[in-house]
């Protein structure tokens, strides 16, 4: 165990900082969209799925920025050879660049799944609040027309009450994408 700590302390520290940044970005964005007065009415319709979608999108942006850095040959060659601050410990960790690249890819997959699921909940809540007739704040906000508001789009993009469920929507969109890709290959 002692040799592992001596040999891999920098990797463990780097991964801890990277995971910590991901957690910090997610929690910070989540709390921003969950607590800010600016998003009160949107939160009334969508609930916490708005904050989950936005927080995972921020982490997606961060990790999408990072995914190419470990495989940039010129950058790695520069850090290995010409930098005077590049010690032997750092040079050894640069050899694990593909492992970090894969970890970033896994994190992108995780946040993509969170983002998609949050948007499915958003669609469900938009649809449910548009169909509601109970006089709740979400149903009233969903029924506001564009002419009643001076600026900006509607709070609820679903403007006609329909009985499309998120499952039906997914299958329709997936079928449309498959058919369009088949047509483009013909």
From TrEMBL:
As for membrane topology, the entry says: Multi-pass membrane protein
Q: Which InterPro entries match?
A: Fe3_Rdtase_TM_dom (IPR013130), RBOH/FRE (IPR050369)
User: Is Transmembrane among the key words of this record?
Assistant: yes
- Segments spanning the bilayer are 12-31, 103-121
Q: Does the keyword Membrane apply?
A: yes
GO CC list:
NADPH oxidase complex
Entry keywords, A to Z: Membrane, Oxidoreductase, Transmembrane, Transmembrane helix
Under the heading Pfam families, the entry gives: Ferric_reduct
Where in the cell does this protein reside? Membrane
Which top-level group of life is the source organism from?
Answer: Eukaryota
The name this protein carries in UniProt is: NADPH oxidase 1
Q: Which organism is it from?
A: Propithecus coquereli
This protein's gene is called NOX1
